[in-house]
Amino acid sequence: MTEANEPRSVVGALIRDPYNRIFVQRRSADRRLFPGCWDVVGGAVEEGESLLDALRREIAEETGWRLRRVLARVAHEEWTADGLRHVESDYVVEVDGDLSSPELERDKHTEFAWITAEEVSLLDENAQGSGSNFIKDVVTAAHAWLADASEKSRRIP
Distance (Å, rounded) from C-alpha 140 to C-alpha 117? Predict the structure, then answer.
């Protein structure tokens, strides 16, 4: 059990497709936290669960896809909502499944998009709704990591 003063562990999956786009989904308007905002797949780590197990579970629950592999952790940030501290670890991942047809939790998410590095401005509306650029920042970090990894792979003799 997490102590009241201990932050709650949260994981986020920055799911990439073969075109290096990142998957985002819009939270429904009736969600208690961040209603109507774009978000990445993820959620709280349950008691006794590892970060990897939580990542695997959240991906399956929110999309129906299966975690294939974790490429990198691109963020590890603390944030507060409803007076509770959270520590979020966000990972660039690859998944197995039909990427054109995620099985969204319709009561929690209303739409999805695959965004390129040039399209992250779509996430600017989150700052208007929640006052936060957190999701834009982690998606930008994922795109930066992917661009760097791609550049390094081209330099290998």
Answer: 7
CA 150/CA 140 separation, integer angstroms: 15
Give the 3-state secondary structure of residue 114: strand
Instruction: Give the end-to-end CA distance of the chain in Å, rounded to a whole number.
Output: 50
The SS3 of residue 24 is strand
Contacts (Cβ under 8 Å, ≥6 apart) of 153: none
Q: pLDDT tens digits, residue range 97-144?
A: 999 999 999 899 999 999 999 999 999 988 887 778 899 999 999 999
Give the neighbor-by-neighbor strand order of the sheet with 22-27: 38-39, 22-27, 109-115
Residue type, 11: V
Write the CB contacts of 131 (distance below 8 Å, at least 6 apart in sequence). none
CB-based burial, 44-64: b 16+ in 10 Å, e otherwise: ebeeeeeeeebbbbbbbebbe
Q: The whole model's pTM is what?
A: 0.91
Please give the angle made by the CA atoms of 5, 9 and 10, to the nearest 5 degrees.
135
> Comparing C-alpha atoms, which of 13, 12, 11, 18 is closest to residue 100?
18
